[in-house]
Prior knowledge:
7-stranded mixed sheet, 6-stranded mixed sheet, Bds1/SdsA1_MBL-fold, zinc, 595 residues, protein dimerization activity, Nonspecific Lipid-transfer Protein, Chain A, alpha/beta
Amino acid sequence: xxxxxxxxxxxxxxxxxxxxxxxxxxxxxxxxxxxxxxxxxxxxxxxxxxxxxxxxxxxxxxxxxxxxxxxxxxxxxxxxxxxxxxxxxxxxxxxxxxxxxxxxxxxxxxxxxxxxxxxxxxxxxxxxxxxxxxxxxxxxxxxxxxxxxxxxxxxxxxxxxxxxxxxxxxxxxxxxxxxxxxxxxxxxxxxxxxxxxxxxxxxxxxxxxxxxxxxxxxxxxxxxxxxxxxxxxxxxxxxxxxxxxxxxxxxxxxxxxxxxxxxxxxxxxxxxxxxxxxxxxxxxxxxxxxxxxxxxxxxxxxxxxxxxxxxxxxxxxxxxxxxxxxxxxxxxxxxxxxxxxxxxxxxxxxxxxxxxxxxxxxxxxxxxxxxxxxxxxxxxxxxxxxxxxxxxxxxxxxxxxxxxxxxxxxxxxxxxxxxxxxxxxxxxxxxxxxxxxxxxxxxxxxxxxxxxxxxxxxxxxxxxxxxxxxxxxxxxxxxxxxxxxxxxxxxxxxxxxxxxxxxxxxxxxxxxxxxxxxxxxxxxxxxxxxxxxxxxxxxxxxxxxxxxxxxxxxxxxxxxxxxxxxxxxxxxxxxxxxxxxxxxxxxxxxxxxxx
Length: 595
């Protein structure tokens, strides 16, 4: 076997293994990976000036350290989210840890200075929830101290973090990069609605440290000699933890409050964010009557009356959108009709902390419709529509051909109707007309110039850059330490493989292959006529078996180790033929990438 792998056939075997094993995960790298992110390549985008409200909002996120109450420090502007450090009697309590290794490295000098000035180490870390900007810089912030702190999180958080390697990762990465404007040049970028520029690109590494202590619905614990109340407060995610320090009358509301209309639906795509749960969480926090509130985004809020008013208004806005959407649903309105008509009451719409600078009311209404009734609007036109390509052909025929369709789009732009111009440009694109790109790009820039919600503005501008030829980089884990990757359950890696079976190639095949792990549970991947699924244990009818450790398998899966070299080193054994393994793995494709 070693002679075979060392010979000319090694290249073929390796390529097939990489296609089947390493290529199926969107997180790709190589053995010569770097520990730091590469320089970001920004898109070329025609200058588009942000609206005054958007520009003014940027000032909230200017980089600084504040101490709104003695001993409670908040680092603003070092990344998308705030980092809060509590100087407790017996140590420092760190709340949230930024979005990447790069972001966290920017905060290390200040954190080390705080350690030195107080003579204290971090004894406890709290993740308010699983989003990267709150949890993925922990290893960096803890690297300069010897003691290992307790790390607190809601009991769902670890599983949510594991989803960083998931079946939808390729598309959610692209959509997130558009939404956050990651590749927009500075002259076209303003803010991210809840923070400054996201410090996480395709090549930035993550350094999440797993929780040591988890919380269900409620916990009162002592951290560094201080009483801390941890409250499960579902909202933007189901694993949100609100943090309350009663001796300081200090509330940290996680992402259930920020200085903008809440992102009940995010354009990057997430599971349904139930407004009813979010509203209930705000009620719970409001009843604490805190004197100081330090959100995980935006700036501190002082005074019990002001905090109560903001949390109540926030809660009422969320509840109003939910209830009004349900009322309109019951009146027979479609999602488009609801989105067009729904508006907050004036006293809420005019509140500076409820401006549509991050989330949008119409998006929230659409999410409620989908979350309660699903995709069907109720109009039978939705049930059997023409395919998108057929729709484009029919529109061109109706307009009198591609030239007429293009002329109509250009006329719409001249009249200020960029939305219709974008629709017409998209039809041309589907027809393969090269002139569509310019029409789409111009319409997208026009729409961005009118948009207040940063997520939508950035999405428009990045999409315009893509129409002009910018290609989104492929995500990498080159700077992410093995320690984090090795914490991801092995069944998640295998599960991604099964999702990406080449169904057309195995319509008439039924076979299975075993994966024996010397340090974990064994699995079988079974293919049965177009479907692949994961089984516990090793099946009797497996055509072969791969034996290794979970860490080695992960390293191969993300291309940190060459499978041929692993075989030669004896770190992996194959029972059966190499050809049988490569043939089996060849039935699996990389995740589908968006065109």
